[in-house]
Specification:
The complex is a heterodimer of chains A (583) and B (221).
Chain A (H helix, E strand, L loop, with lengths): L1 E2 L3 E6 L3 H13 L4 E4 L7 H5 L4 H6 L12 E4 L7 E2 L15 H4 L9 H4 L1 H9 L17 H15 L7 E2 L2 E2 L23 H13 L3 E3 L9 E2 L5 E2 L21 H4 L1 H4 L5 E4 L3 E8 L2 E8 L5 E11 L3 H10 L17 E5 L1 E9 L13 E4 L18 E6 L5 H4 L14 H10 L3 E8 L8 E9 L5 E6 L4 H20 L2 E3 L19 E4 L16 E2 L2 E6 L14 H19 L8
Parallel strand pairs in A: 1-14, 2-3, 2-14, 3-11, 4-21, 14-25
Antiparallel strand pairs in A: 4-5, 6-7, 8-17, 9-10, 12-13, 13-14, 15-23, 16-19, 16-22, 17-18, 18-19, 20-21, 24-25
Helix pairs in contact in A: 1-15, 7-15, 8-14
Chain B lengths: L5 E5 L7 H4 L13 E5 L5 H14 L9 H4 L1 H10 L29 H12 L8 H10 L4 H15 L11 H6 L27 H5 L12
Antiparallel strand pairs in B: 1-2
Classes of the chains: A alpha+beta (583), B mainly alpha (221).
Amino acid sequence: MTNLKPVDVVIVGGGWTGLAMAKELVTRTSLNVVALERGQPRSLADYAMDMDELDYNIRLRMMQNIAEETVTHRHSATDAAVPVRQYGSFHPGTGVGGAGEHWTGMCFRYLPSVFTLRTHLTEKHGAARLPADLAVRDWGVTYDQLEPHYWYAEQMMGVSGKAGNLRGKQIDGGNIFESPRMNEYPTPPLKHSYASHLFEEAARKVGYHPYPTPAANLSQNYTNPDGVSRAACAYCSYCSRFGCMIGAKAQPTNTLLPVLRKHKSFELRTGSWVRRIVHENGRATGVQFTDAEGNEFFQPAETVLLCSFTLNNNRLLFLSKIGMPYDPASGKGTLGRFLTHQVEGGIRIYFDKPLNLFMGAGSLGSRFSDFDGDNNLPGNDGLLRYGMLSMNGNGNLPIGAFGNIPPGEAKSNWGADWKAASLRWNDRATQLNLYGEHMSYRQNYIDLDPTYTDKFGDPLLRFTLDWTEHEHKQRDFAYDLAAKIAPAMGAKIDTRRPSRAKYNVINYQSTHIQGGAVMGASPELSVVNPYLQHWDMPNLWVVGASSFPQTAAGNPTLTVMAVTYWSADALINKYLKHPGRLA
Amino acid sequence: MKRREFLTIPASALGGTLLYTLAREPFRLQAQDGNVKVPLRFFTAAEARVIAAACERIFPSDASGPGAKEAGVVIYIDRQLAGPYGADKYRYTKGPWVESVPEHGYQGKANPRDTYRDGIAKLGANFDELSVADQIARLQSLEKTHFFALLRAHTIEGMFSDPMHGGNAGMIGWQLIGYPGPRMSYKDDVDKHFGEVFRPKPASLEQIMRRPGKPWEDEKV
């Protein structure tokens, strides 16, 4: 083990949160900052040659190498866990920019009630009427506190959209159910595709309030407050699971890295796999990492910022023996608690005319939030929270889109009649999508697997996770909404209602795994305080969606960034001036 | 080192387009006699004939249009199996190996190469010589196997992936479904053509970028 020269701040992870923290630190302080990223450098030049569905959308060439590390899964604490051997219901990214390079770019602000969900549901329904296993919590931070940080993140990315609630004033065409915004979006909405245009008209006809999905895919050329310029989206459809070849999709490498590169006080070390946070007497002293050649290093630091993906944030805390692991039997312990995965589901719809679905952009689309949070829900049928229904115009690629046919059109899923039916329905089948809140439950959690290990021999994380009756109700509700929208779009809905299947690790759901190291106002129920400072270790901060006690309906990245900037303010304005516990 | 194996295909079966697909390959096309000889990376010639016949039953060439034969799907599968995918280089392959519930997906130890070798044995060495009805019956008997799931998925991939991967010869699969390939921009078209068929002429990644792509299967295993 080689001891390296001490630095002021070491950051674990070179993705959205790590580079955002680094940028705030090096532009606002004189500290020297090192970020350790286990993957490789990435650049715009890599991405043009990547417009290949097979290698990137199907074989998932941009993702973490699952041969080196994965997670195990079981449905309940009485089952045996087995490894997720191939992706999968989620796709962890790697390399500089992390999953922020291959993401889709949807940028939602959460509803105020998401941040105070325990209080909100208790006030609305009474504690006695909530499911006994419901674990949701208040975050310890409110929407109003985060609003300026949301705006800061939106400007950094140049989010395209239309406000529906500007300082409390409702605006037609935007999301009138959104949390009040102080500013209009930095750039106007993306164009609509034919399908999203049909959806918007249909939703309006049925009486809902559709709006264009807010997107980190730029609708026009844009220069952000840091002076970083990016080009408008070209609607090429090679977006989600790809890096953007023209930089129209906001990615850490095209927004934050250009600023960081100008600062000598910042260093990004790739191929550096952090294995442990080293600590002594309640203080982190630095991190231990292994480079690509297998050499081991100790990087001492005054402050450690753990800014990797939800999975790795949790795993490093477990492996470093920081905090008390959660025990679902006794309810004691906090680390690994509140594991959630956003509730998503597609409902197929079929048209009698072509849709030209091969044109699109990651977040192009339309949706409505009339039933987001618990807007307009009766609440007496056990459906406590719902979400959004959307038409995504992210662009169909030919392998993935082939063979979507209505039930009964072919005898099997191969052969002459299947081929003929698939050709007949090609470009006439698409889907409506549910984006649902996943509430946290006592029985869904993370710990270390007793059997399976990573390439170094360290234990993998183990997920204990299954859907509950509530998520089935959400999917049923989505189907019923879709059944109203589809005919108004001139489409037929697939007659198969959502199955009540158990959680599966095979079909892609989203990469929005959240929780495990959650934030909160008390150390009994959370791992980090509302500023994301570890309760047991004031110079260790754990940043990212690992801190979310439950998921909202919308995709988490924008909120991850807002919370990161909120945390950065506390770190820089309070902690660094008077190091110690902030809450 | 094993003897180099070739798959001999009538050039006419490939819609006369194989020359483009294989243009980057360092071998001499032997089409004088009306046949092209494609060097195989994984299969033996006999195995390739069995798989080609099976793919043709999954995605047949018939009245609804060209199929696996014209697209050269077997060449695609051969290259995938020879590359990192076939060797499970990017799958978690640490034990213990235990069977689990269906929600956990394929948990077997066999990699795609092993699965194909086993599947070819089950199809039978003479599969390509059976009648169409017998071929269909034999595939139906394997429908529930992991091998069949791979074969079906790979057949679709070989029909519609970029030609640099060895299938979709001459972009025949893309022409079949009207997919234009990896175009740089639809900025001027995405919000037009509502309700109408819009089908730009297909172009491959190499044609668009004017340099050859780097397919993953070429990575050293």
